[in-house]
Each structure stands twice: as structure tokens, then as C-alpha cells.
């Protein structure tokens, strides 16, 4: 127990442990511990499920119309064209963290968080089939393709790792 008297800390201990289990370390029992200094926190580590690799699949089956560009002001994702109403599917397991049309230039947008490091974004949808907070599995229908916020029916698909754009073609499986 810890007692404070006259601004000084005094540590007192019971003379005998109350449990019958023997102490695994006799040195720790004989050393007084500073009560005001807690042990250092364990380093924060995310589990592999929270940061590890993501098993990606194509979010739509249409034609690849535009590729990712690293150029300043370049396209930060890929564009896939298909018919209006074609299915848009979750590219990997995750949770919907954004659903709406509040980001200029993206139309009806969904953002899925796959783990602590990876996100994917699905823009220009006609209809959104999931809501914020929904858990989705790879391949689940999450939207239908449309032309919201753009001039043609398309899916603009982005992948981000640690907030930075990644070329989706480097993570998606090769199409046959």
C-alpha cells in the first residue's frame, strides 16, 4: 500500500503474501517499486489482420479505360467502363467508412477500409447498395455503375496505403 505523509511517500507491505502461490521472482519482492512511476507502456503493435496484406480482386468486369498516373495532377486510380447498372463489387474484405456525394469530382462514392493501412474508393456509382458501418466481403455487390459526377458510365477505383495513392494495377490480380 502507498501512504503519503508530510509530502514524502512511504511504502508498506504486508509481512506475508496472502496467496499460497510462491513468488516466481524473489528479487522483485525484495526491491521496493516506485509507486508514482508506472511501467512503460508496451509498444503499440497492430495485429497482422489489422495491417497485413489484402487479398484484392477486380471491382468491376468492364474494360480498363484509364490508368493510374504519378504525374502531378494525374489520375490517382483506374477507370473501368461498362454498362449503366453493372455490378460494382468490394475489391477486398472490409468495412464501409464513407457513403455519399460530398467529395467534388467523385459523384456517388463509397470508401472501404480493409485494415489499418489500406482503403479502396469506388466513384461515379449510380446506386449505393451498402451503408456506412457495413462489413463487406470481397466480391459483394456494393453499388451499381453509373455516371454520377462524370460524363460517361464508369467506375473510378482508387487504392490507398497509409493514406498514399497506390496504382491499383500493382495490387489487383492479372486479368486473363
Rg over CA atoms = 27 Å
Query: From N to C, what is the helix and strand string?
Result: EEHHEEEEEEEEEE
- Shape verdict: globular
Beta-strand content = 25-35%
Briefly say what this structure is.
With 176 residues, the protein is mostly beta strands. It has two helices and twelve strands; from the N terminus they run E-E-H-H-E-E-E-E-E-E-E-E-E-E.
Can you characterise this structure?
This protein is mainly beta and 176 residues long. It is 5% helix and 34% strand. The protein is built from two helices and twelve strands, in the order ββααββββββββββ. Strands 3, 4, 5, 6, 7, 8, 9, 10, 11 and 12 form a ten-stranded antiparallel sheet that branches. A two-stranded antiparallel ribbon has the order 1-2. The radius of gyration is 27 Å and the shape is globular. The termini are far apart.
Q: Which key terms come to mind for this protein?
A:
176 residues; mainly beta; ten-stranded antiparallel beta sheet; two-stranded antiparallel ribbon; 12 strands; 5% helix; globular
Map the helices and strands.
Blueprint: E1 2-5, E2 8-11, H1 26-30, H2 48-51, E3 63-66, E4 78-81, E5 87-89, E6 94-100, E7 108-113, E8 118-128, E9 135-136, E10 141-145, E11 155-161, E12 164-166
Antiparallel strand pairs: 1-2, 3-4, 4-11, 5-10, 6-7, 6-9, 7-8, 8-10, 8-11, 11-12
